[in-house]
Amino acid sequence: MKLLHGTLSIASIAFGMHAAQASAQELIVNGYGGPYGDLIQEAIIKPFSAETGIDVIYDETGSSGADYAKIKATGGNPGWDVNVMTAAQSLDGCKDGLLEPLSPSTVPNLDFIDPGVRDLAGECGAVHELQYVSLLYRTDKLDPAPTSWNDLADARLDGKIILPTFNNLLASQMLQIYSAAAGNDPNDVDPGFEMLTKLAPQALAFEDTSALMDKYLREGDAWAMPFYSGRAGGMKNAGVPVDFIIPSEGTVPLVSTLNVPVGAEHKDAAHMFIDYWLSKTGQESWALAYQVGTARADTDLPENFRAKQVTTGEDIQKLILPNLSVTASRLPEWADRWEREVVPAAN
Question: CA-based diameter of the chain, in Å?
Fold first, then answer.
């Protein structure tokens, strides 16, 4: 059976098996707010509800970190059934026994997700999208265009780059990128600190979130910065004179996951929802709606989209894949070091 539009799929069979039970349920999905919330409603929730009859309540409170803190504080019973998080929280939640393990027996479309990417998120996380840390730049300001992460140190960008604070996940990822470029394991971050300390005086500003970083390039006050590929693609599609690349040294992914807390009330419906999002139709719809990549290789996506996002096994092989469990264990140490080395250099 192939997962094609208009044909019977494994996911459809799963829907049929649970439809009578699930249709009486209200499924609560927790995710991000703002434009993300609008996109998930149109691309995923409405078609899922139409196919299954399940009423989905979308809760857009909190961030990944805040949501996991609530899962932890409630012993795995935060009041929702499905959570949008990142692989880091997925690994922590699995280790702490607060998230349900997922398998192809309950989520059949997991079988179509790249095995290496599945491993990054552990057995409790379903990877529904892939972004990467891109180098975003103004095409009307930089000619020739940058090709390397080292180009952020170029004199022509003095006072024209934006960098993340350590509260922003991009900071630890940039440490890993520069360390891997120097030949180190990405979690051995001495070269990363050396480079970020060098870049700090060049920064126009340091910001806590991608949403705050966005305005500087959008308005032309800054000309280059690290930025997630999905948001970069959205900015470019909105007509801002920008482009984004994977520099020659490579980059790291942002692995986003769907998770089920152990205390979820509607686990059958939660599994069905995740399976729909991982289906060929779900992955195609979400990739184009949110301008993100997919770890499902059989999707039919436009060539111009494929040129910028991670959509094939070959794309995935080009990524630097840090051990995220090791990353999580070292973040407190890195945060202290950032305050000692990078912050004073910026001043």
Answer: 64
